[in-house]
Amino acid sequence: MNGLGSKRHRQRVAQVAIVLGAWLLGGWLLYGSAFAPDESQGSGLLLERQSQMAPALITPQVAAERAEERAGEHATGCAAEIAMGSRSGMVSRSIEAADAFWKEAGDRWQQVFRVWQPPKFPKAGRSVTPSKTTPSKTTPSKTTPSKQGDRLMLADLARPVAVPAATLPSPNLPASGSAPSTPETQGRSPDSRSAFPQTPEPPEHQIRVLQGHQRAVWSVVFSPDGQHLATAGADGTARLWDDAGHELAQLVGHKRAVWNVVFSPDGQRLATAGADGTARLWALNGDELTVISAGDRAVWDVAFSPNGQRLATASPDGTARLWDLEGRELVVFRGHNRAVWSVAFSPDGQRLATAGADGTARLWTLTGRQLAVFRGHDRAVWSVAFSPDGQRLATAGGDGTARLWSLTGRSLAIFGDNRRAVWDVAFSPDQAHLATASTDGTVRLWNRHGGLVETFEGHRRAVWSVSFRPDGKWLASAGADGTARIWELPALLSADPS
């Protein structure tokens, strides 16, 4: 038999002893005079003098005796009744004293409980107004600081977003639409309050909401003809949509999150990059065509070459790799000393740009020779993109800025206010504007000189990806709130003097 000598039993005994000790200590601290044999020696006198919390606990017999004494001293009628031996009066006073004792004892131990119970404070960043909705729990993620002070992707995921949570509007409501008039609301002034819930107005310029992913949407991209969109999500799927926001197909095969999705130049295939260490080729109906394995390394990004015959991938081992469509590795690009987050082909297909967690972007030939290093970001560079004419590069960084560069590495413009990480950047088809996605939950439109044109607010959490439609009329964004959204641009672009 293990008995009390076993480790488990010793732990149980210690726990019981701690609980009983805390119970007795609480009562002693509050009512020490009640437990001292002599009131003059009771340590509770000090507490009694300081707080005057309550008199000491008494037993029913003592309560009855004191009641008799008080009656004898202050009430002659009661004293006479006792002297006459009135049993009914004594019984009545004893019952009353006992009831008072138990009520007083219960109230005082409730005070003990309140003393030992830690106070409750509202959590930082949350409203103290009671709500029936239970806030979702966020598991903090581990961060690995770099030599330049940047944080990895999961650090930005764990940051709180300074965007007020709001109920999502119904998908695909027109931006200018309003709630229909009903018999209950007709004839009321705009200031009158209805007892019925109102459908929230969609954010300004928003024309579509694509809902279907069960978790964050990491990437969104328009097809080359602008009639379809593809999204990639943390739920392990990629999805194909029409431009009206209807889901057409699901691409299921990755065993973990899908970080990125791109269309082939002819728009007939899709490529995805996954945290399971694979890049995959798909038909538009969701059939899997090819699996490209990068071993145990996650594939953060994937890009088609302009001729559609090559794929480039980015990996956390500090390399980018070039593949053919059969999954054969052709070239390894080595130079970054930390993870590579993004890859992009030049429009002529002769160069490759990479962005890394070491705070740099780099330009390469397709044979793996490094041409230039772009330094300026203080933290990780999350995304890189070529301008449509191939003469400039744009980068997005964890330092809260996007930057425009010449191909020689000279900085041309800086976009951003350094408040939150900028996760993605994209050129408009006419090269006159850039769009950025930020972890503060906003999408921003800039002119090429670094001036802010418009801020799009609608996502409830961080925004990870942006993409222009090829005709430049729409902008799509993907966010950690599990949605992709489409925004209308023409009026904004025509109003921009640049």
Automatic annotation (TrEMBL):
It comes from the Bacteria. Keywords: Membrane, Repeat, Transmembrane, Transmembrane helix, WD repeat. The keyword ATP-binding does not apply. SUPFAM superfamilies: WD40 repeat-like. Residues 129-147 have a biased composition (Low complexity). CDD domains: WD40 (cd00200). Residues 169-189 have a biased composition (Polar residues). The chain crosses the membrane at residues 12-31. Residues 120-151, 165-203 are annotated as: Disordered. WD repeats lie at residues 210-242, 251-292, 292-333, 333-366, 374-407, 415-447, 456-489. The keyword ATP-binding does not apply. Pfam families: WD40. InterPro entries: WD40/YVTN_repeat-like_dom_sf, WD40_PAC1, WD40_repeat_CS, WD40_repeat_dom_sf, WD40_rpt. This is Uncharacterized protein. It comes from Thermoleptolyngbya sichuanensis A183. The lineage of its organism: Bacteria, Bacillati, Cyanobacteriota, Cyanophyceae, Oculatellales.
